[in-house]
Every structure is written in C-alpha cells, then in structure tokens.
Amino acid sequence: MENTPMKGQRRFKGTDAGETPESQAALRAAQRAIDKVRAENMLALSRQLDQVLHAATWLIGLSIKIREVRIDRHATVMTVESTPFLWRLFAGDCAWRERKSAGEFDRFTWFAVRYGVRIEWEERQWRG
Fold first, then answer.
1. pLDDT of 86-118, one tens digit each?
2. pLDDT at 78 over 70
3. Integer Cα distance of 83 and 35 in angstroms
4. Which of 13, 45, 88, 116 could form a disulfide with 51 if both were Cys (CB 3.0 to 4.6 A apart)?
C-alpha cells in the first residue's frame, strides 16, 4: 500500500513530486509520439498479414503448395513449390530474380507479385 495517498494528499499518477508541468507535458507528448509509431507499425503489420492471407487462400485454391512465408518491414515473400502450372498462371508477370550454379545444374529463382506479396519459386536446369 505504498502508493496509496494519505487523506488530504493528491496523487499524481506516474509522476514524481519534483516534476514540473512542462516536463509532464513533454512526457505526454513523447508518449503520444510513441503510441502513434506503434499504431502505424501495427497497421502495416495488419495490412501485410491480410495480403498474405489473400495470396495464400488464392494459391491453396489453385492447389499450389506453400513452402515458406517471410514477413519483414519492407516486403512479404511467399516461397511456393515449383510446378509447370506456374508458367501458365504467371505468363506475362513473372521474372527471374537470381541464377546460381550448383554442380551440374543451374538454379533459377523466379517471382511474381499478387495481392502485394512476392511469390517465389525455384527451378533447376541441367547444363548437360
């Protein structure tokens, strides 16, 4: 019961007795700024999760297997299993992002964007 004020005393919530009204106002302004940034971050995350849900529902409806979903501040990337159907599905919208050589094979990473989500898949091509 340390924080309970005595009869006749005023209790200042979250402040010390030595704080001035100016410092209290500055603290309130700082808290409002922190709350604003937190709300903006939550809104961005909510938007990204909504986009992932739309893309995942669409892909699952087309019987495309999802391997991985990565969400960061700047992009949402969904890795799917490679199938020949992806070429028809993303006919004019896909591009290759990366080419790596692995032994006797070249590995190409392709991507397309749907619902604000970058959908990626890898294909192997024998150099033979």
1. 888 888 888 777 777 777 888 889 999 999 999
2. yes
3. 45
4. 116
95-102 sheet: strands from edge to edge: 66-71, 76-80, 117-126, 105-114, 95-102
In the chain, the largest separation of any two C-alpha atoms, in whole Å, equals 91
Cβ partners under 8 Å of residue 58, min gap 6: 114, 115
What is the number of other CB atoms lying within 10 angstroms of the CB of residue 82? 19
CA dihedral sign of residues 60, 118, 95, 67: negative
Question: What number of residues does the chain have?
Answer: 128
Phi, psi of 27 (to 5 degrees): -65, -40
What is the rounded CA–CA span in Å between residue 5 and residue 63?
A: 65
